């Protein structure tokens, strides 16, 4: 796949824009900003993220003078015969009727035919300016623009010969050391008149960016970190921008690489292909305002998506603009321009391998993009990372008097209120998955029930049956309350219990047996990302009662005496009535 030669080149002052050949200024002329710096030099300001140097190639020698309207160029001659042949070759290819023989003739033709570009618009891939830049590079000795400015935002040249120059990015200054992918980009070609007062121009380029977000199930908004239940679908959105000088490219490589940690499973179809969609928007702000992607242009068919195994159990999701069978990456998509934003969206689930709380379950993405229209070079963004957290429960059942572990207690745990409404009313399994039907959880030999993969929220606990000889506790709730700091994606986990007073505490018991009270040990509420809860059952004891038979006989005798007395009273009253 062949790319145009002006990969990092951006027009600062267009070919016909910064000169007045023979003292005649074209109507579209726009000059680079004059500065009080040293004469016959150029300062090229880098765009954000770039620290590159530049190479300059002289096209015409000329006398350059400053006027009230800019610069006047006269006495135009060729820089050398190789440049003459290169420029005239481009002109003849564009215009079969061209009959010029002098440098002035060529300058006049360039002034008339380099249109549609200015000091803010990069040249396009099929333009005359781009063809001239490709032809001129290497045809004359180059000069390097590499002296850092005081603000370190650009580079300044030494004093140069007066005339008309082409400036492009110096490939040796791009950060490709040690085989690392570039994180910088080339500029679109800069054509400038040098002489008189110095020029200060800004390269016409920008570095594409990538940003990843999680759509929270709590409020539907995007975050850098969130939390979820195991098995719950979580939506991820990846935003990619393009270079300002994308018009300069004939073909444009664009590839997202998303490394998904082993605690997350990307949803795929029956054939194992990741379920990914790609949308194009007119700007990043438009994309971020449409989280349902109802207003985006679906360009999924222009991309291929693959999911492969990575290291340490991770998976690698790649989403690549097609460049085979004649496709030209992003340049195959109608309407793409320097403001375009592409959104990759997919869903994934927390799985059984998830890290509980702690560092969470991160995934990071980078974007590889064309950064050199002159060659096959690509750059790569700094990765952007998001993190999904999940939590756990450690329920410990003890004898309330001895505080020894009790095996065989059966509980059910139901979601009471969660940050997603779909989970409410469902029952929790030991692996954190949710069920519409009741799930029984039984304490082991250590009196424990271990649950992983829980989301933030409040859960209702019911003791269905207690160990033999013990009474059950009344229903109670526990609440998992995380605090997630978005800036550094760190977590602070807290929890609490309510109900079954005296029989349930948040935390592990301090082990003070014999007082028939549960007292939490200090700093024991949360351990390894799990909320600790201690539940105490009271033992039912049948104590022997002495003298039980004597008491019974006394009650019997008393009852007989009472009955005799009542019958005697009734008989006496009847006798009195008879008299």
Please explain how this structure is put together.
The protein has 579 residues and is mainly β. The chain has 3 domains: 33-202, no CATH class; 210-387, Immunoglobulin-like (Sandwich); 391-539, Immunoglobulin-like, CATH 2.60.40. 12% of the residues lie in helices and 36% in strands. The chain is built from 5 helices and 37 strands. The strands form 7 sheets. Strands 11, 12, 14, 16, 17, 18 and 21 form a 7-stranded antiparallel beta sheet that branches. Strands 13, 15, 19, 20, 22, 23 and 24 form a 7-stranded mixed beta sheet that branches. Helix 1 (81-94) runs antiparallel to helix 3 (128-136). The longest helix has 31 residues, at 548-578. Residues 1-38 have low confidence and may be disordered.
User: Which class of the largest domain in CATH terms?
Assistant: Mainly Beta
Largest sheet: 7 strands, antiparallel
Query: How many individual β-strands?
Result: 37
Q: Classify the fold: give the CATH topology of the largest domain.
A: Immunoglobulin-like
Indicate the structural class: mainly beta
When the domains are counted, the total is 3
Q: CA-to-CA gap between the ends?
A: 136 Å
Instruction: Give start-end ranges of low-pLDDT stretches.
Output: 1-38
Question: What is the helix content?
Answer: 10-25%
Number of helices: 5
Strand content: 35-45%
């Amino acid at each position: 796949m062949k790319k145009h030669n002006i990969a990092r080149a951006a027009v600062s002052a267009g070919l016909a824009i910064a000169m007045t050949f023979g003292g005649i200024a074209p109507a579209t002329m726009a000059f680079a900003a004059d500065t009080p710096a040293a004469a016959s030099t150029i300062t090229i300001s880098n765009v954000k993220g770039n620290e590159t140097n530049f190479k300059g190639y002289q096209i015409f020698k000329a006398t350059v003078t400053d006027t009230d309207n800019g610069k006047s160029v006269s006495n135009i001659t060729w820089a050398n015969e190789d440049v003459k042949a290169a420029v005239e070759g481009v002109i003849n290819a564009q215009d079969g009727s061209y009959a010029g023989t002098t440098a002035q003739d060529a300058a006049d033709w360039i002034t008339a035919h380099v249109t549609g570009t200015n000091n803010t618009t990069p040249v396009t891939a099929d333009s005359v300016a781009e063809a001239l830049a490709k032809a001129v590079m290497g045809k004359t000795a180059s000069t390097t623009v590499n002296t850092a400015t005081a603000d370190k935002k650009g580079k300044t040249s030494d004093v140069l010969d007066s005339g008309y120059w082409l400036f492009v990015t110096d490939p040796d200054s791009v950060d490709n050391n040690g085989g690392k992918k570039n994180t910088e980009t080339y500029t679109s070609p800069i054509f400038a008149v040098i002489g008189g007062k110095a020029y200060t121009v800004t390269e016409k380029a920008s570095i594409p960016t990538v940003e990843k977000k999680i759509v929270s199930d709590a409020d539907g908004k995007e975050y850098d970190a969130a939390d979820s239940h195991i098995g719950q679908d979580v939506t991820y959105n990846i935003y990619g921008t393009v270079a300002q000088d994308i018009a300069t490219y004939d073909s444009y490589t664009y590839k997202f690489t998303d490394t998904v940690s082993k605690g997350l499973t990307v949803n795929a179809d029956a054939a194992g292909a990741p379920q990914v969609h790609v949308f194009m928007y007119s700007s990043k702000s438009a994309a971020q305002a449409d989280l349902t992607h109802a207003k985006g242009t679906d360009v999924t068919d222009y991309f291929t998506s693959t999911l492969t195994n990575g290291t340490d159990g991770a998976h690698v999701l790649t989403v690549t603009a097609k460049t085979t069978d004649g496709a030209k990456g992003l340049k195959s998509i109608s309407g793409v321009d320097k403001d375009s934003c592409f959104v990759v969206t997919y869903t994934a689930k927390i799985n059984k391998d998830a890290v509980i709380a702690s560092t969470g379950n991160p995934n990071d993405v980078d974007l590889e993009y064309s950064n050199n229209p002159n060659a096959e070079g690509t750059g790569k963004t700094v990765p952007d990372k998001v993190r999904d957290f999940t939590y756990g429960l450690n329920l410990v059942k003890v004898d309330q008097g001895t505080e020894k572990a009790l095996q065989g207690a059966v509980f059910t745990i139901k979601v009471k209120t969660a940050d997603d409404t779909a989970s409410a009313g469902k029952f929790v399994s030991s692996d954190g998955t949710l069920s519409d039907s009741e799930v029984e959880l039984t304490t082991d030999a250590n009196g424990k029930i271990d649950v992983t993969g829980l989301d933030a929220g409040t859960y209702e606990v019911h003791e269905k049956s207690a160990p033999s000889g013990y009474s059950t506790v009344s229903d109670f709730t526990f609440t998992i309350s995380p605090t997630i700091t978005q800036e550094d994606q760190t977590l602070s986990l807290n929890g609490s219990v309510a109900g079954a007073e005296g029989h349930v505490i948040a935390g592990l018991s301090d082990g003070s047996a014999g007082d028939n009270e549960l007292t939490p040990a200090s700093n024991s509420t949360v351990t390894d990302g799990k909320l600790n809860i201690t539940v105490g059952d009271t033992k039912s004891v049948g104590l022997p009662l002495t003298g039980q038979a004597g008491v019974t006989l006394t009650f019997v005798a008393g009852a007989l005496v009472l009955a005799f007395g009542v019958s005697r009273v009734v008989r006496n009253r009847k006798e009195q009535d008879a008299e």
